[in-house]
Design a protein that fits this description.
By secondary structure, this protein is of the alpha/beta class. It has 9 helices and 11 strands. The protein has helices at about 15-30, 55-65, 85-95, 120-130, 140-145, 155-165, 210-225, 230-245, 265-275, and strands at about 5-10, 30-45, 50-55, 75-80, 100-105, 135, 170-175, 185-190, 195-200, 250, 255. The strands form 2 sheets. It has a 9-stranded mixed beta sheet with strand order 3-2-1-4-5-6-7-8-9, with helices on both faces. A two-stranded antiparallel ribbon has the order 10-11. β1 (about 5-10), α1 and β2 (about 30-45) form a beta-alpha-beta unit. α2 (about 55-65) runs parallel beside α3 (about 85-95) and α3 packs parallel to α4 (about 120-130). The chain is globular, with a radius of gyration of 18 Å. About 50% of the residues are buried.
Length: about 280
């Protein structure tokens, strides 16, 4: 069985971060490993405000050593790393282990908060992780920050940002237009340094999209681990996360999550196969 590791933040509500990644890996039929780099908590007494607590770099390193003690990983993805030291720690292990199929989800801010990582952390992503990325998956806000172009409000602006991010070292740049891009379509842009590919689907009128970005990048990593080419992995990941958003579920009064089993109809399948 193919092995994939996520180095990311933990979301105790189960919708995003490492929890989303491991669920996605399971649905793809790959074996998921995890290194927790940060913990994201939400306060129901304060309007569901978010707080990001970074793990100590030494503990991140110990987790990575444990995870990589066996056979080589078939793919790796990063998410919310929390601080500059953890970003450097992740990059160090990627280089030491010569990991193939590296997907960098440059998580700079969480849904539900305007808190952006410190400039040094953003610089560390650019300096240490983007040159190692086979695929980088920023959303519009993250792509605007990484490219230095600010707010991206059109496909043309996404193309300009993709070119600049590609110059920073990533082999493939996948910018997620999502709900932020004006219009009726959810448009993702794929750029390989030579040509642009637009992947379009209808926008889904729902607020139950918590974890969509993490799920998307995890699905790309799992597809690459299974031996699929980058563009095919991205196409499948878009179909996977679109289904997950369509069948999103209410978790509590504050947030709705994507359903990671939607694409494979996990809930229906298990009901049908239950012994009588």
């Amino acid at each position: 069985m193919e092995k994939v590791i996520s180095i990311a933040g933990s979301d105790s509500t189960g919708g995003a971060g490492i929890e989303a990644d491991l669920k996605t890996f399971q649905e793809y039929g790959v074996f998921g490993f995890a290194t927790i780099a940060s913990i994201v908590t939400m306060d129901p007494q304060a309007g569901w405000s978010h707080e990001v607590t970074a793990m100590e770099p030494a503990l991140v390193e110990k987790q990575l050593i444990s995870a990589f003690a066996g056979d080589p990983m078939d793919a790796l993805k990063t998410g919310m790393l929390g601080n500059e030291d953890n970003i450097v720690q992740a990059a160090k292990m990627i280089q030491q282990q010569q990991v193939k199929n590296v997907v960098i989800d440059p998580v700079i801010a969480c849904k539900g908060t305007a808190e952006i990582l410190q400039p040094k952390s953003v610089d560390a992503i650019i300096t240490h992780l983007l040159p190692l990325a086979d695929v980088v998956t920023p959303n519009l806000v993250e792509a605007g920050i990484l490219s230095g172009l600010g707010d991206l409000t059109s496909v043309e602006a996404m193309k300009q940002a993709a070119e600049k991010i590609h110059q920073l070292g990533a082999k493939y740049v996948v910018i997620k237009g999502g709900h932020r891009l004006p219009g009726a379509k959810a448009i993702d842009l794929v750029y390989d340094g030579e040509s642009f590919l637009l992947l379009e689907s209808g926008k889904i009128a729902t607020d139950f999209n918590h974890g969509a970005g993490c799920t998307f990048s995890a699905a790309i990593a799992a597809g690459l681990a299974k031996g699929k080419p980058v563009v095919e992995s991205v196409r499948l990941a878009k179909a996977f996360v679109t289904a997950a958003i369509k069948e999103g579920v209410v978790i509590n009064p504050y947030v709705g999550h994507v359903w990671h089993g939607a694409y494979t109809h996990a809930q229906v399948r298990m009901n049908e196969e239950a012994p009588q």
